[in-house]
Design a protein that fits this description.
Length: about 220
């Protein structure tokens, strides 16, 4: 499929060919859902912790004698049914992360890229950098596009000055082409991709087995 390439001023420059094996696939909503939930699960800290009856600080003695009072028998003050007592089956620190098959994760990312390309929310811009590393310089450049909309900027490499400039824009997140995140990419209202990043994605996410299949025919 062909996609327009814009200049930093927002003007059309040329067209670029995007690989249909990366940007022209049918959207697999199930894989996208699994990939996003996998990322959210892996980000969970899992550090919630409550104290059980044996961990609460307090005396082990009964508040009054067991017999002769006419009242119900009572254990110590750390009983879970008393205020300040232990918690029954409360949460403990745990690891929520789990692994997802690499092929499935790659396919999910390709589905999101295809979704963005087919819904016209993907914009490809000529390569640029912010040499000053200042937020105002990057914000001035982004004004030519849908300014203020939740945006994902896909970089061609780890540009430290561009990342520094983008760090203080609350509605902007940045990703390197070889380290995409399904959650950010999917929920971005618009995806701005550098031209070199788009070319690199054609090869990086291209099906490695497609060439072998064609050779075997």
């Amino acid at each position: 499929m062909n996609c327009k390439v814009y200049s930093k001023e927002g003007k059309e420059l040329r067209t670029i060919t995007l690989d249909d094996a990366v940007f022209g696939l049918p959207v697999n909503e199930d894989l996208i859902w699994y990939a996003i939930n996998n990322e959210l699960a892996n980000k969970r800290q899992g550090n919630a912790c409550t104290k059980g009856r044996a961990e609460v600080h307090g005396s082990n003695a009964r508040p009054y004698k067991q017999k002769g009072t006419g009242r119900a028998r009572r254990g110590d003050k750390k009983s879970p049914i008393l205020v300040g007592g232990g918690t029954i089956f409360g949460p403990k620190p745990r690891d929520f992360s789990y692994s997802m098959p690499k092929k499935a994760k790659r396919q999910a990312l390709k589905s999101i890229l295809s979704l963005k390309a087919q819904s016209d929310t993907l914009k490809i811009i000529e390569d640029f950098s912010v040499e000053s590393g200042k937020t105002k310089d990057l914000a001035k450049l982004l004004e030519k596009f849908e300014y203020g909309t939740r945006t994902v900027l896909v970089l061609k490499d780890d540009d430290p000055m561009l990342k520094r400039a983008a760090a203080n824009i609350p509605w902007l997140s940045y990703l390197s082409y070889n380290r995409l995140r399904a959650h950010d990419l999917f929920y971005g209202r618009q995806v701005i991709m550098l031209e070199t990043a788009a070319k690199n994605l054609n090869e990086f996410y291209k099906d490695a087995h497609s060439g072998a299949k064609e050779a075997g025919k």
